[in-house]
Amino acid sequence: MATGKDEDLQLDQVVSTREMAEALRASGAVDDLLAQIDTGEVALTGEGGLLPGLIKLALERGLAAELTDHLGYEKGEPAGRGLPNARNGSSAKTVQTEAGPVPLDVPRDREGSFTPRLVPKGQRRIGGLDDMIVSLYAGGMTLRDIQFHLQSTIGTEVSHETISKIVDEISEAVLSWQHRPLDALYPVIYLDAIVVKVKDGGHTRNKAAHIAVGVDMAGIKHVLGIWVQQNEGASFWASVCADLANRGVRDVLIVCCDGLTGFPEAIAATWSQAAIQTCVVHLIRNALRFVSYSDRKTVAAALKPIYTAPNAEAARAELDAFTASEMGKKNPTVTRVFDRAWEQFTPFLAFPPELRRVIYTTNSIESLNYQLRKVTKTRGQFPNDAAVVKLLWLAICNIEDKRAAERAKERGQKRCRTAPGRLVEGQVVTNWKKALEQLALVYPDRVEPYL
């Protein structure tokens, strides 16, 4: 049978939470307590729960040790009788934690010179509660939803105003991210948007939250910024391009977007040599919008020779052949869609296949937008544009953090690795070395200074 000394030694030797649990189970010290938890006699969290009680015990013990260090003598020690400062009871204080509310007796001294460090004066939340609130907000929950969730799950009452202040504290981080310096050259920039509902006066309007993803010289993707606007136009895109230029972007080789109104003019004014490429996937999707369901597969197959043509002339010949065909005559809208976007559709045809795969579509951020739509759908509507940017930024961070945690959990496993890779931020473009080689051949004067 193990002695108490042996048990203490075992607890001292543990290095992980799992080992601590095993050591406690082996010691039998918590068997009665666990039995009471199973029967419901003792609650685990919330008011009067086990975890808040343990937190109270640990914090008050730490505060007592801080006061002892401040006074210079232990409680009840005769040496303290001749000193001018002494203990002077305690003051009550309740702090909110992840396990629920914890009432504390904070020790005091007669001179009032004691300043706690473990639980500073004025602090009412500890133990990651702020991080929990921000995480719930990033998941799309409203402030009142978070308030109700904390009350119903851990018994913690946090006011609507307090939760609002906690969320607003990250506004500086969002502004810093939105205005951070950027690289001088991004070979490729993708632009796409999701529609969100924003309050505007007494009305709720649909606005587009445009997200820009840039590929740097190493082939790594970065979310460059988020801009919210109700109406697209040259003036709006001019401000976006000016923002990117002011943050250090001197040149862009190719911009891939989805037929944005006024965008070509703004790009030409900021980066005159940049090529604008319409997303081929979106173009085909728009062309098939007015095609009957029974004909879609046939039309889609007939359009493939157009966007896989070796050059623009061959693509034009294939489009003319489709227009003259029976299916083309039946669906004249398809030809009109391609004709309207022809100037922005053909640039990628001048490049070899390795580079075409990189620039022909904005699908690289479609998966990101899919995840963000789930968050905005849960939220419903936003009070202003800043709230949209804040939530989308938090959601991107939250998504990437979850994926990173899953990858870290599976690190070292040789089989059955199912953790997802990076969504956008930090992801490396497939076969980027080959694509960069082709870009260097096509734009030697613009690429080589940054190699």
Automatic annotation (TrEMBL):
InterPro entries named among the record's database cross-references: Transposase_mutator
Domain of life of the organism encoding this protein: Bacteria
Keyword 4Fe-4S attributed: no
A GO biological-process term: DNA transposition
UniProtKB keywords: DNA recombination, DNA-binding, Transposition
Pfam families (alphabetical): Transposase_mut
Biased composition (Polar residues): 87-97
GO molecular function: DNA binding; transposase activity
Region (Disordered): 75-119
Purpose of the protein: Required for the transposition of the insertion element.
Family per similarity comment: Belongs to the transposase mutator family.
PANTHER family named among the record's database cross-references: MUTATOR FAMILY TRANSPOSASE, TRANSPOSASE FOR INSERTION SEQUENCE ELEMENT IS1081
Protein name: Transposase
Taxonomy of the source species: Bacteria, Bacillati, Actinomycetota, Actinomycetes, Mycobacteriales
